[in-house]
Write a structure and sequence with these properties.
The chain has 283 residues and is α/β, with parallel strands linked by helices. The chain has two domains: 3-158, Mannitol-specific EII, Chain A, CATH 3.40.930.10; 174-282, Helix Hairpins, CATH 1.10.287. Helices cover 49% and strands 15% of the residues. The longest helix is centred in the middle third of the chain and has 28 residues, at 146-173. The two termini are 29 Å apart.
Length: 283
């Protein structure tokens, strides 16, 4: 099985030692400091200063509170070996200036190397998907220990990993759904494809299995989209990048706010950056 190759098993990037069931922080700034220091203390990165500066700067321009009591602050950190996440819970809630203006109770602070943007995309998408389920969210808020929170994240994300590919295949196969959701399905597939290609480069064993997974994903992607993806990977990898603060993270050019809003509100179509032609998604 290659479900771990999908990058959607959250506990591959979270350790029990990096989960705080009851944070000491009483403000947003203190929460960000507490979790960033935790990743440093647990040797997930060499220093915490640059990461914390980046996280704080991001929060001053746009809150990472995504609603439903969840926040996903993040930073790209040079020198890290891979994505790492610290999870903090604040039972009383924090004012995070979230999009729904409600207090934040769960903070997933994510740090990752600049070359690992695809893993970041998959990670945040999985967090948002899993905790959109009211029962999963309730269980996370009521868990008594870090061990319980870890086990919940592991069980729910493993189940999601097992069923996610089946859902994508259904979207690709059903003409009625396909007509509305081709862009969204292809974007998900491109994210999986890019992640598997990154894995193939770094893998020491199991390369044939990863290659088989790549071939299977490629067979599902719209040929026109796949052709453009291949050209990008040859000339300006990565082919799929996020847009943060209206700025494309591939060419670092600022995009018109109206266009970024359109990308955010139009998941039925796949979009590219007008400057570098990379496929884009909005975080």
């Amino acid at each position: 099985m290659l479900r771990n190759a999908h990058g959607m098993i959250l506990t591959k990037f979270i350790t029990k030692q990096c989960i705080l069931p009851e944070m000491a922080a009483t403000t947003k700034a203190d929460a960000l400091k507490e979790l960033t220091h935790l990743l440093f203390e647990k040797r997930k990165m060499d220093g915490h200063g640059p990461a914390l500066d980046q996280i704080m700067a991001r929060e001053t321009t746009e809150s990472t509170g995504i609603g439903r009591g969840i926040a996903v602050p993040h930073a790209r950190v040079t020198g890290m070996k891979g994505l790492a996440c610290a999870v903090g819970r604040v039972p009383e809630g924090l004012d995070f200036m979230a999009v729904d203006r409600k207090p934040v109770h769960l903070v997933f602070l994510i740090c990752y190397p600049p070359t690992d943007q695809t893993s970041y995309l998959n990670f945040v998408a999985t967090v948002a998907k899993l905790l959109s389920d009211k029962e999963h969210l309730k269980a996370m808020l009521e868990a008594k220990t870090a061990d319980e929170m870890f086990d919940l994240l592991e069980a729910t994300s493993e189940k999601f990993a097992e069923t996610h590919e089946q859902s994508v295949r259904k979207v690709k196969a059903d003409p009625a759904i396909k007509k509305m959701a081709d862009g969204h399905a292809d974007l998900i597939l491109l994210a999986r494809l890019q992640l598997c290609q990154e894995m193939l480069v770094s893998a020491r064993t199991g390369k044939s299995q990863v290659q088989q997974r790549i071939d299977a994903i490629r067979a599902l992607v719209e040929p026109r989209v796949l052709s453009h993806y291949d050209k990008l990977m040859k000339s300006r990898a990565p082919a799929l990048v996020p847009v943060e603060g209206d700025t494309c993270q591939g060419c670092f050019m600022r995009l018109p706010s109206k266009f970024v809003q359109q990308v955010r509100q139009d998941p039925a179509h796949i979009h590219t950056c007008a400057n570098c032609s990379r496929f884009i998604y909005v975080v």
